[in-house]
Amino acid sequence: MRALALSVVVAAALGACSSEPKYEFEPGVCYFVATPDGEPPRLQKMAENVAQIELCAAELEQMRLRFLRMGGSNQEVAGAYQGRFIFVDREGVKFGKSLTGSRFFAMARTGDGRLAIPGAIQRDETGRPIAIAAPPPETK
To answer: CB-based contacts of 29: which residues, under 8 Å, 6+ apart?
Structure first.
């Protein structure tokens, strides 16, 4: 009985420590996480009818590149899709269950800057990614 009471107190304390706001997610909607100065992060709808989280990450990557081309200096863009958070930066794409928690590395940059699943990237002997082109057509 005492162990049950202790576990309830610990769970309540852990729940109270979380200062991250709760968000409402719509199915199939890709969000950009806006972080205004001095305010809590908020979600802004970017695209609807998005089929999967990787496509939402592609939308965020396009936005990140547009900002950089216009002279911006922010290398990281955050977004959300169906309860998961997406972080796109110069290294690749990471997913997480919260804005401040751990992140799972989902897509890495190839040698030419494209995004790919990490296991699909070929690397040289130093570990750097190599851009692989299709083999040239055979000539007769």
So the answer is: 45, 47, 48, 50, 81, 82
Task: Write the CB contacts of 80 (distance below 8 Å, at least 6 apart in sequence).
Answer: 23, 25, 30, 31, 33, 43, 86
Element (H, E) at 78: strand 77-81
First and final C-alpha spacing in the chain:
82
Q: Mean of the per-residue pLDDT values for the chain?
A: 80
DSSP 119: G
Q: Which residues contact 127 (CB under 8 A, 6 or more apart)?
A: none
For the stretch 78-108, pLDDT in tens is 999 999 999 999 889 999 999 999 999 888 8
What contacts 63, CB < 8 A, 6 or more positions away? 32, 46, 77
Nearest CA to 83 among 132, 21, 24, 11? 24
Give 43's strand partners.
33
